[in-house]
Amino acid sequence: MANDSPAPSDLRFSPSVDDIWAHVSGSALPAGSADKSSSSRRVTGSVVLIDGASGTGKTALAAHLASRWPQHREVVVVHMDDLYGGWTGLAAGILGLEVGFFEARARGADAHLRSYNWGADRWEDGPTIPAHVDVIVEGCGSFGAGGSPSATARIWLDAPLDVRRERALSRAGEDFERHWDLWEGQFVEYVRRTQPVTIASLRVTANR
Asked: What is the 8-class DSSP label of residue 168?
């Protein structure tokens, strides 16, 4: 599974990217929070989550937001695709985010993530994310981890089914068409079981 295409002209977001950024910067970048100076590195960085079904533009939106991040702060984008461990791994990815990231953040510790290599079908060492660094987590299931409600901004993305399916099936180097029903079924069950949209701080609709 590859990430959603970050092409800036691919989708229109409502509210607009400008309005989404205003929401994120107002909640996730409060005055006095962590920056790059060594004296501030004891401060835990902010966390922004972007969740929604496949093809809604989560990776594209994450790229837009990361490009606007203040230069005096560090930001890392974490892709849930790297945590799933295969086409049946939505629940495993959610657990990996909880154990590998949120539990460390709760202690004020650096987070160590594993990363799944889809082409080689194996787990590899992933990034180490210092506790003071701001993080954007994008991908299906990012609201499902135990620490998700503590995130400073939680953005839920919706899009029409035909748009989602067209985008997902057009991704180069994937066999998403063969796995669409399998993956979509896991996501529908995740939504039914956890009602993730109820913790969203902002709902966004994407369309062509």
From this structure: H
Instruction: Express each pLDDT in 156-183 by its tens digit.
Output: 999 999 999 999 888 766 789 999 999 9
CA dihedral 107, 111, 116, 117 (to 10 degrees): 180
Containing 122, the helix (H) or strand (E) segment is: strand 122-129
pLDDT at 44: 87
* Nearest one of 114, 139, 115, 138 to 47, comparing CA atoms: 138
Sorted by where each begins, the domain ranges of the chain are 12-207
Rounded to whole angstroms, the Cα distance separating 118 from 108 reads 31
List of residues 6+ apart from 45 with CB closer than 8 A: 33, 34, 73, 74, 130, 131, 132, 133, 134, 135
φ, ψ of residue 39 to 5 degrees: the values are -70, -20
Tokens of 194: 């956890």
With a CB cutoff of 8 Å and minimum separation 6, the contacts of 118 are 1, 2, 81, 86
pTM of the entire structure? 0.92
- Short-list 62, 50, 75, 52, CA closest to 8: 62
The architecture in CATH of the region 12-207 reads: 3-Layer(aba) Sandwich (3.40)
Report d(CA 132, CA 143) in Å as an integer.
21
What is the pLDDT at residue 171?
A: 79
Low-confidence stretches of the chain (pLDDT beneath 50): 5-9, 31-32, 38-40
